[in-house]
Specification:
Structural class: alpha+beta
CATH class of the largest domain: Alpha Beta
Order of helices and strands: EEEHEEEHEHHHEHEHEEHHEHEEEEEEEE
CATH topology of the largest domain: Rossmann fold
Bound molecules: adenosine-5'-triphosphate, magnesium ion
Number of helices: 10
Number of strands: 20
Radius of gyration: 25 Å
Helix content: 25-40%
Distance between the termini: 37 Å
Strand order of the largest sheet: 7-8-9-3-10-11
CATH architecture of the largest domain: 3-Layer(aba) Sandwich
CATH superfamily of the largest domain: P-loop containing nucleotide triphosphate hydrolases
Number of domains: 2
Strand content: 25-35%
């Protein structure tokens, strides 16, 4: 178990067509030992680049990386340890098993490279297979396995060396929806069992929220916020994080609302109200009778039959999603009130 420190890491790529691409613009992170840490952000924000730099596959243009007290990468000091020297294991989206080798030999592969003796290899392979519950598959070839089983073999190959650090880059994205959810919880329990420091890359906020002890949200090569899933959900630092986290997404209301909830937002009147937006989570809004809420709105549509109720409303020019209703039998185009606590409103600067 080791902790990882990332200090002011920058990465520039130079391309013919796009010129200089600043993939990472000064990343500072501390990844606590034994924890499940998630790098979350939209496509192109720099997640894989950062993971590859931590792994030792890619060199940082600037900055330093520490594994515990050990400096493993430094642009100034010209230090750059290989993935092997860092003792990291990585699982990619395409988990690239060796098709001609059995499951056993796939998992044993890194141990054979490390020239462990046969008995030791056998013990370790069986240990990993036991944790991943794939003992019965050890004789099979990857071609005979389902996606989830292959995924587990790839994980087996990664953990069998008992590495310092496990790096996972969207490892579940090739699986179907149901299997993803199963694998997510398995991954989480394996990580807990091994107390292996793990960094997991995903663009899927649901995945991040259910897996992470801590999450770092990235956008355009910049860390926006670091926190537990609860902190990021309840107290997003800016509009980007507020919109990116949560499903269904947070409602975003334009400045109009401020004038009605004046005791909380009075101070905004001194500012330019148009530069401010208010966010409110769908589960914080309750549908009540007209004029009994904070604002009035009109029901446009109700959510999927059988699923959790979801109400699509329009209020003062805003589209609003709500998750609960006090009044039964509301129909499309009914005028209703929207009730919520003033403290549930989050106020953001529109710009950042
Ligand atoms: N080898 C490279 N050469 C040039 N540009 C690159 C290279 N690798 C990454 N980039 C650029 O750096 C930025 C970050 O890429 P990266 O692959 O880290 O994003 P990502 O967050 O992993 O995205 P995704 O979710 O799509 O995998 C992108 O703009 C990408 O085009
Ligand atoms: Mg990527």
């Amino acid at each position: 178990m080791i902790d990882i420190k990332i200090k002011n890491v920058r990465k520039n790529f130079f391309t013919v067509k796009r010129g200089k691409v600043e993939a990472l613009k000064g990343i500072d992170l501390e990844i606590p030992a034994g924890k499940f840490f998630v790098l979350l952000g939209p496509s192109g924000c720099g997640k894989s680049t950062l993971l590859n730099i931590i792994a030792g596959i890619e060199k940082p243009s600037e900055g330093e990386i520490y594994f515990g007290e050990k400096l493993v990468a430094s642009s100034n000091k010209k230090i750059f340890l290989s993935p092997k020297e860092r003792d990291v294991a990585m699982v990619f989206q395409s988990y690239a098993l060796y098709p001609h080798l059995s499951v056993y030999d796939n998992i044993a592969f890194p141990l054979k490279i490390a020239k462990l003796d046969k008995n030791k290899i056998d013990r370790k392979v069986n240990w990993a297979a036991d944790i991943l519950e794939i003992e019965s598959l050890l004789g099979a070839k990857p071609g005979e396995l389902s996606g989830g089983q292959r995924q587990r073999v790839a994980l087996g190959r990664a953990i069998v060396r008992e590495p310092n650090l496990l790096l996972l880059d969207e490892p579940l994205s090739n699986l179907d929806a149901l299997l993803r959810i199963t694998m997510r919880s398995e991954l989480r329990s394996i990580q807990r069992k091994l107390e292996l420091t793990t960094i997991y890359v995903t663009h899927d906020q649901t995945e991040a929220m259910s897996l992470g002890d801590k999450i770092a949200v990235l956008k355009d090569g910049v860390v926006q916020q670091i926190g537990t899933p609860e902190e990021i959900y309840n107290d997003p630092i800016n509009l980007f994080v507020a919109k990116f986290i949560g499903s269904p997404p947070m409602n975003i209301l334009d400045g109009k609302l401020a004038e009605k909830i004046n005791d909380k937002l009075n101070f905004l009147k001194d500012k330019n109200i148009n530069d401010v937006v208010a966010g409110i989570r769908p589960e914080k809004i309750n549908i009540v009778k007209k004029d009994e809420g904070v604002i009035n709105g009109k029901l446009k549509m109700t959510g999927p039959p059988g699923g959790e109720p979801l109400y699509y409303l329009e209020a003062e020019g805003n589209e609003i999603l709500a998750k609960s209703s006090e009044i039964g039998n509301i129909k499309e185009n009914d005028e209703v009130g929207l009730k919520f606590g003033k403290d549930d409103l989050l106020i953001f600067d529109r710009e950042n």
